Amino acid sequence: MNYAGIGMPNDGPVYLDSNVFIDFIEGDETISAPIGPLVHKLRQKPGQAVTSELTLAEVLAPSKGRKRPPHIRRLYLNLLVWGRFIDLHPISRGVLYETAKLRATKATSRMKLLDAIHLATAVLGGCRIFISRDRDIRVPQGMLLMEPSTGSVRKVIEALK
Fold first, then answer.
1. Is the per-residue pLDDT at 135 higher than 90?
2. What are the residue boundaries of the structural domains of the chain, listed by start?
3. Strand order from edge to edge, sheet including 14-16
4. Model confidence over 145-161: pLDDT tens digits?
5. Which has the higher per-residue pLDDT, 2 or 49?
6. DSSP states of the chain as a string?
7. How far apart are CA 95 and CA 124, in angstroms?
8. In sequence order, which residues have a C-beta less than 8 Å from that of residue 103 and are 6 or more positions away?
9. pLDDT value of residue 10
10. Which residues contact residue 148 at a Cβ distance below 8 angstroms, ignoring those fewer than 6 apart?
11. DSSP state letters, 69-84
12. What's the confidence (pLDDT) of residue 109?
């Protein structure tokens, strides 16, 4: 994937934060609609999407005090596990070391632990784009933080061609 023509970082996979999957599966139409074309494009390009196995815990766990219905849990499993186009990276010792390193820097010291684990996974996965609606994430130089909006998603899809 080459992002150079559209002002994007160099080649590398795209990291999808857990909130992107939650927005896609459970968000209202205005939130989920922009993500659909990205998911469709990534299905055509296995290995270009990365997320942490932490995402599984976040999407399968109860949300806002309510247990997710079985059909919603199946949708997440179909997308993240059985779809086989998203690389699920484990929370390894290396990821935890990188997490600690990231949280030791001034720019990312206030980042929540779970967000830092996601970011460390993206760094170690060679991701150049981190897609999230979380405004507290601070990506390192050379990585681009993008929200899952129509305009941003369009740029990523264009770069995937």
1. no
2. 4-160
3. 86-89, 49-52, 14-16, 129-131, 144-146
4. 999 999 999 999 988 87
5. 49
6. ---GGGT--SS--EEE-HHHHHHHHHS-HHHHTTHHHHHHHHHHSTTSEEEETHHHHHHHS-BTTBPPPHHHHHHHHIIIIIT--EEEE---HHHHHHHHHHHTSGGGTTS-HHHHHHHHHHHHTT-SEEE-S-TT--PPTT-EEE-SSHHHHHHHHHHH-
7. 7
8. 109, 111, 113, 116
9. 47
10. 20, 23, 31, 34, 35, 38, 131, 132, 133
11. PHHHHHHHHIIIIIT-
12. 78
Which two structure tokens, joined as six digits, stand for 53?
């196995």
Q: Tokens in use for 137?
A: 């994430």
The pLDDT score that the predictor gives to residue 26 is: 95
Q: Return the structure tokens found at 124.
A: 């170690």
157-to-48, 104, 117, 139, 145 alpha-carbon distances in Å? 11, 34, 25, 21, 15
Q: Which fold has domain 4-160?
A: Rossmann fold (3.40.50)
d(CA 95, CA 120) in angstroms, rounded, equals 6
Q: Is the pLDDT of residue 59 over 50?
A: yes
Tokens found for residue 122? 């993206």
**Which residue type occupies 155?**
K
Two tokens, residue 69? 């219905």
